[in-house]
Each structure stands twice: as C-alpha cells, then as structure tokens.
Amino acid sequence: MAAENIDEVVDGLAEIVRDAGRAGDRVGYFAALYRQVTVEVRTAIHNGLFDDGARMDRFDTLFGNRYFDAYDAWRRDRGGPRCWREAFGLLDDSDTVIVQHLILGVNAHINLDLAIAAARTSPGEAIHELRRDFLLINDILARVVLAVQDSVGAISPFLSLLDQVGGRTDERILDFSIRQSRQEAWYNAVLLAGQHGTEREATIERLDVRAAVLARLIARPGGLVRPALHLIGGSESDDVQAVITHLDRAMEQRPARQGTDEPR
Description:
Layout: H1 6-23, H2 27-46, H3 53-77, H4 82-88, H5 98-121, H6 131-155, H7 157-166, H8 169-193, H9 197-219, H10 225-235, H11 240-248, H12 250-253
Helix pairs in contact: 1-2, 1-3, 1-11, 2-3, 2-5, 2-6, 2-11, 3-5, 4-5, 4-9, 5-8, 5-9, 6-7, 6-8, 6-11
C-alpha cells in the first residue's frame, strides 16, 4: 500500500489493525500504537499547532509509507530493511512480550525510518526549518505512550506489579526508548539532508545495521531482564485479538484518568 496523505496513513494503519485482530497477528500491537500517534499528529495539524501543517502532512505520509513498504516487503518475501525483518520475525514467537513487540517497532521506525522521512521532506538547508515541528511530536508521543502503558499494564499483570514496585517501569522503557531515539534521529536527519547518492545510501545502510543490532538486544536481553520478561510473559493475556483491541483503544480510555498520569 502507498499513502498519498496523512488520512490515508491513518486508514492504512487501521486496516492493518483490523486484519491483525481477525487473524490474531501480533503485527497489530505496534500498528495500534502507531495508528494512535498518527491520529494525534493529524489532530495537531488540523489545530494549527505546527509551524507548517502541509509540510507535516507530507512528512507523516513519507514516514508512514516507510512502514507500509517494510510491512509489504515482509509479507511478500520476508524482505525489507534488516531492522524490520528482526521485528517482524518475532511476531510468531509467543515468548516475546507485548512491550518488546512495541519497542521493536519503535526501534525500526524511529532509528531508521524517521531520519530518512525528515531528510526527504526537507532536503539540504531546509532541514533546519523542520526542527521545531519535528521536536513537537515528542509531546504527542509522550501522551500516547502514557495511554498505551496503561493499556499494557491492564493486560500484563506482572508488568503492572513492576509499575507499583519500580515506578511505572513500562512507561520509562517506552518513553526513554522513543525520546532518546528521536533525538538521535534528528542528528541523522540533518546528516542525510546534506548527502546524496552513494554517501546517502551508505548512511542509510549504517542506520539499518545499527537498528538491527538494537533489535536483537531488545529481543534477547541479558542479565536480570531475561527472567523478568519470562515472568511478564507468563502473566500476559494470550488472546492476541483482545490485546490488539485493548491497545488500539488506549487513547479513548485515557480521558477518565487525566490529571493522574502526567509524564514524570
């Protein structure tokens, strides 16, 4: 699939979420998170929060199409960027917990796709004009992360217990991963915006390799994280369709909790 605007990105993501729910496919986990982020970005565009709403529509469309291209390549012949192959390759692994699936998607989409989409939206010196709008999305991501972390806690009881003992553990994992990655993505976007041809391709290759290495660390962490994930997995719902539905309604469920879950 190929989107022409942000509305088509939202529709494409909604279609993936629906199909994944019917099939019990864990690809719907990240797609549900990403759909809600995109809806929030579209709302911000309509409300005039960005310096250039039309530019952000183009940016989000390029960004969304990177995900669609990777998803289509995987379904077609298990192809696509290395980091997405790592993420999609674990969809049938019942030992990979919900938070891992979410972070694997975040890793591939932000550590590879985001810089590429930004550089294509504003090549050359124009990239610097994009910076404020690029960083503004961090606030949108923070709101969605808070909503999704609550949804994860409801369907992953042990992770919810870690929240109470350790202080919103899953939120810290997700939020740190997203914020740190987006900061690095901006520097990579500036780099790519000034490159062409083989130099640009070499940088993209390097970003893909690095994101693939990170994906393997996320999938198979060492130390005490591994047994903790095993316990988390044993407490999670194995009803994939129900989990997708729950995650996809995270932002709808959040208003009742506003005022109690602001970023820390």
